[in-house]
Amino acid sequence: MRILAYADRISVAPGESLAVKVSCDGLDRYDAELVRVIQGDTNPAGPGYREERIELDLGGPFAGRHQALRPGSAAIVEPFPSARLTDGLTLAVALWPTLPGAGRQTILAARDPDGGRGFELALDESGAPSFVLSDGREEVEVSTGRPLVAERWYCIAATVDPVSGVVRIGQRPKRHYSAVGDSGERDHRDLPSGGFVPSGQRLTIAARSGADGHLHGFFNGRIEAPRLLSGALPLAEALGSMDRPADPADPRLVAAWDFSRGIDTEGIADIAGSAHGRLVNLPTRGVTGRLWQEHMRDWRQHPEGYGAIHFHDDDLCDAGWETDFTVSLPELKSGVYAIRLFADGESYYVPFCLRAAGESRKRLCFLMPTASYLAYANNRIGIDVPETEIMCGRLMEMHAGDLFMQAHPELGLCFYDVHNDGSPVYYSSRSRPVVDMQPGWVGKLGGVGSNLWQFNADTHILGWLEHIGIAYDVVTDEDLHLHGATALEGYDVVITGSHPEYYSLAMFDGLRSWIEAGGRLIYMGGNGFYWRISFHRDRPDIIECRKSEDGIRAGSPGAGEYHSSLTGEYSGLWRRNGMAPNVLAGIGMVAQGFDESSPYWRTEASWSGKAAFAFEGIEADVVGDYGLSGRAAAGIEVDAVDHSLGTPPHTIVLASSRIHTQLYLMVPEDMLDPTPALSAVETEVIRSDMTFYDIDAGGAVFATGSIAWAGAMAWNGYDNDIAGITENVLRRFLDPDPF
Amino acid sequence: MSRYRISEADRPYAEEFRRNLEADTYYHSPGLQRVLNVMRGSPKAGKYVLIVREPHARWALGRMPAARGEPVEIVPNVEYTDLKQAEWDVFCRRWKDLTGADLGIERPGRP
């Protein structure tokens, strides 16, 4: 992939503009065009790839240039008041390293770029704390020589006495085991010949400044309560000072950063003065620190327990690329569009939603699940996760894009990955190239057949809408989050994507309020409304999810870390927040498997009764024994009725799946007492229920309970019973008559 | 890491896998599933994957590296034009890796 790009927005209205940021690798020039995305499946057995070129001069061709991706989180304090340190210094900090010994890692540095004058506390190559002094020509380094043990709390202190010329460093574990040998101290009796010269430019935490203007030497792990005092304290006193919060009244205190303040911000507060700083690339806040105790659950209630920040060398919040060109969107019909960048036989798509202009809303809306796209952005399932082959029941296919992702981990992570240090990923951002959100992209979990996932899987729905010729608008999750039910106002029917899994409170409430006001929802997927996420308060390009308690997840947050750092909300399953998907959709997630899907067997209710309109003209007893996502209509991730979880009592089950492979296992949140009968072969719990319920105000929900549904609609050029059922439901939902 | 060790006693499941590939079904017996779980559950380093040469048409055989950023190794002179052929070939390779013996069963669909 020699072109990468992203835009500043994912949802725009006519008249608004989109800033496109592009990086080229070995391409001097590239061109750009606007396309409407209609059907992104390239499977020869599918309905055929389709996009529509829009006549609009975007200003190209453009000069290609390389823009780098620079992952790694840190804090920067600039300017840093170093003048008070000329009489010597004491530096103390608490540390919970996660990858000691994996290269040199800076803890705190106040040093001219690239090893110039100043001082730096780091973990050396062996993982032992090391203190470096430099006068710009000569360097003195003293290490404790005692490598730290991963994932244990330590206090580290270093002192410099310019009069005696003694430099000391020491470390003390929070819990001491004499057999481990991870405490100790060292001193050194010669300063550099130029003496002790603190740098006055900038102080960095968890990284150091390079001569190239970028940060290097990233630290992996947690840092808490770094503080600097003027003068050299006895080492024992310096280490002991970490047992208490820094005292702002202490006249020796030059700076002390209390990370428990402003946890929901990207700033760090100096409680001694005004050396406040800013965070780069969103390290993880709201994590437990050295003073955390087992009764603490919420950083808002017990900030003193959450004074640490977890830094990672692979955090990437914002690529920060410069804009290459801006597109002002003309009056076009609402839809899913993309800026297509192309050169030398290569293409890269930057998709976005063009909303309807002002009053020109249509009656039908496709709710583009952009939060779920973001949750899976650049996911490394099948690349980093070797178990994916078991889950999919077949060999992993590595397409060119997968090989590119394997070669370029700097693209950043998502909720399905773990950091290099094994800790779970809590944040995902769209301010970076999201390579797997493009038409034509083949996924890993999409089942036997086309194997599509999220964005590209949803083009099966867009293609079907185009095929039946019913006009629609598009609105994104981000719009629903920012504007609630207002984002859907005026629409009679909303269609979801194939896997609308991640919902914020505002999204959940907004969709529910719209249904209660008479809106009719077609839930065209599986495992929807599952995880509760938080959006960054000021930046909707960033979301957070902490997969607390249970659910299907790549990693588990530590004890006491179940609350979002961005908002304080209790993160995790909506089910654990008292609102299971069943409350909204009528059904909720029961199992997943990524090989073969199952047909649906009809119930009596599909032949006659209130909801039989869905099957009008459908003669078969069994429907959906075909498809592009697992070769049948019910599968991948499947949902079923569960009245104990809030399925409305009058919900009608029109059909259910029956035959799933052994790869479909009961979800952890349903598994109270594990027994050997948890696979779909043995338990009837695992099935997809096709359901309908309505409410007095005229609102209604039709739910398919299957990610594979859209792939079945697209079978045989959208000419099949599953597409027929969906069209029946859509046309009836557009009819305002009560049910 | 699986506790189960594949042995000659699992040979009937190899036969079943061959039949299932021919029948184009993913519904396996519990015994075959256990064998497949062992084979497919290997760690990332050295794991067999298919390198797509032409989508839906042609694949090479590759082995994953241990870490992010490292290149995927291409197994020389191995290419498939059908996914069942690839599944069977990798099954046989893994059988030999895990038991030390050749499976010696002809691949499905061979004319």
List keywords for this structure.
heterodimer; A: 739 residues; mainly beta; Immunoglobulin-like; Jelly Rolls; Rossmann fold; 16-stranded antiparallel β-sheet; 9-stranded mixed β-sheet; 10 helices; 11% helix; B: 111 residues; alpha+beta; 3-stranded antiparallel β-sheet; 37% helix; 19% strand; globular
Summarize the structure in words.
The complex is a heterodimer of chains A (739) and B (111). By secondary structure, chain A is mostly beta strands. Helix content of chain A is 11%, strand content 29%. In chain A, helix 6 packs across helix 7. Chain B has one domain (8-99). Helix content of chain B is 37%, strand content 19%. Chain B has helices spanning 11-23, 30-40, 83-99, and strands at 48-54, 58-63, 73-80. Chain B has a three-stranded antiparallel sheet with strand order 1-2-3, with helices on one face. The mean pLDDT of chain B is 93. At the A-B interface, strand 29 and helix 4 of A face helix 2, strand 1 and helix 3 of B.
Average of the residue pLDDT scores of chain A: 96
Shape of chain B: globular
Tell me the span between the first and last alpha carbons of chain A: 51 Å
Number of strands of chain A: 45
SS summary, helix count of chain B: 3
What is the rounded Rg of chain A?
28 Å
For the residues shown, what is the average pLDDT of chain B?
93
Q: Can you list the strand order of the major beta sheet of chain B?
A: 1-2-3
Helix fraction of chain A, binned, reads 10-25%
The H-level CATH homologous superfamily of the largest domain in chain A, spelled out, is Class I glutamine amidotransferase (GATase) domain
Helical/strand content category of chain B: alpha+beta
CATH class of the largest domain in chain A: Alpha Beta
Helix content of chain B: 25-40%
Alpha plus pi helix count of chain A: 10
**How many structural domains of chain B?**
1
Domains counted in the coordinates of chain A: how many? 3
Biggest sheet descriptor of chain B = 3 strands, antiparallel
The portion of residues forming beta strands of chain B comes to 15-25%
The radius of gyration of chain B is 14 Å
Element-by-element helix/strand order of chain B: HHEEEH
